[in-house]
Amino acid sequence: MLSKKTLGFLLKITIVVFALYFLYQQLTSKKAIEGFDIAFIKQTILENQSLVVLVFLMMFFNWLVEAIKWKFLIAKIEKVSMLTSLRAVFSGITVSVFTPNRIGEYGGRVFCLEKADRMQGVLITVLGSMAQLLTTIFFGSMGILFLNNYIPELQELYQEMEYAFPLMLFMLLLLNILLLLLFHNISVISNLMDKYGWLSKYKKYKEVFTFYNTQELAFVFLFSIIRYAIFTTQFFILLNLFGVDISYFDSIILTMVMLFVISIIPTIAISEIGIRGSVSVYLFGLVSANTLGILSATFVLWVINLLLPAIIGAFFVFTLKFFRKP
């Protein structure tokens, strides 16, 4: 029978192999990278190294903000150092690349915890992801309101149906208000669970939703907005780098819609770059005919924001502790 130490090592090897295999498949799959011109991408990068370095540094700042956010959240059950939080974030990225919609990220992080209950850690990590998803929904839905400026058929529809736009505006505002109220009063979930006696045995876990007050959740939401701003700016820089003539305003609006669409499409890493490419070409194709530039910016952003962090995280996976000493 294998010892826990040996089993833990085999699990780490399996995670790293799976992650690297899925990333390799993504980079070599003809279906995933159809339309990408690697030679053009290499040449453009070499000619604009300073801008690429800037986007690369922004990636580290992006994940640093996420590490600060997770450190703040997880402190309710265990105090962790900034280094441990960064290790958890990058490990989570590696585990997430071969799981649907990156759900493996939740489990990947909690194995960096020394003593805290891991299920509570997963729920807290989910709470942080909820803040990021809420940010995507909030700004994405606002971006949808501007799509009539880019899609003539939509503008015609609004003109024919006088109440179409006001109705959509009302529904989106109502949705966002309700989601924001729910998130900033997340303890409501615990209160609802209290009404069901059979959930009493999960008291330890539902209490997670009472750990944070409105001010603390607002702080988490703010950090999610910062991450969102970093990502959208990265994409704007890359679009211009690859010759896509687009204003900052148009770029931000279309990126907000793109992120919103991607967030609601079930994906795994092996198909993600293809889906991102298709969505970005359609949306940014509304303002630019430079399909090659749009695809190139999408690909490079994926490499910088996911591929490289996943490779970094592969080294940190070997520091995870799947089994604790009694």
Task: Describe the structure concisely for a colleague.
This protein is an all-alpha fold and 326 residues long. It has helices at 4-28, 38-47, 49-74, 82-96, 104-110, 118-144, 152-160, 164-184, 187-193, 203-206, 214-241, 248-263, 269-284, 291-316. Helix 11 (214-241) crosses helix 14 (291-316).
Summarize the topology:
Blueprint: H1 4-28, H2 38-47, H3 49-74, H4 82-96, H5 104-110, H6 118-144, H7 152-160, H8 164-184, H9 187-193, H10 203-206, H11 214-241, H12 248-263, H13 269-284, H14 291-316
What does this structure look like?
With 326 residues, the protein is mostly helical. The protein has one domain (37-79, 117-311). Helix content is 73%, strand content 0%. It has helices at 4-28, 38-47, 49-74, 82-96, 104-110, 118-144, 152-160, 164-184, 187-193, 203-206, 214-241, 248-263, 269-284, 291-316. The longest helix has 28 residues, at 214-241. The model has no long low-confidence stretch (mean pLDDT 85).
Backbone structural class: mainly alpha
Extract low-pLDDT stretches: none
Average pLDDT, rounded to a whole number, is 85
Q: What share of the residues lie within helices?
A: over 70%
Instruction: Report Rg.
Output: 21 Å
Overall shape: it is globular
- What is the rounded distance between the termini? 19 Å
Number of strands: 0
> Biggest β-sheet, characterized?
none
Beta content: under 5%
Query: Would you list the SSEs in sequence order as H and E?
Result: HHHHHHHHHHHHHH
Number of folding domains? 1
List the total number of helices.
Answer: 14
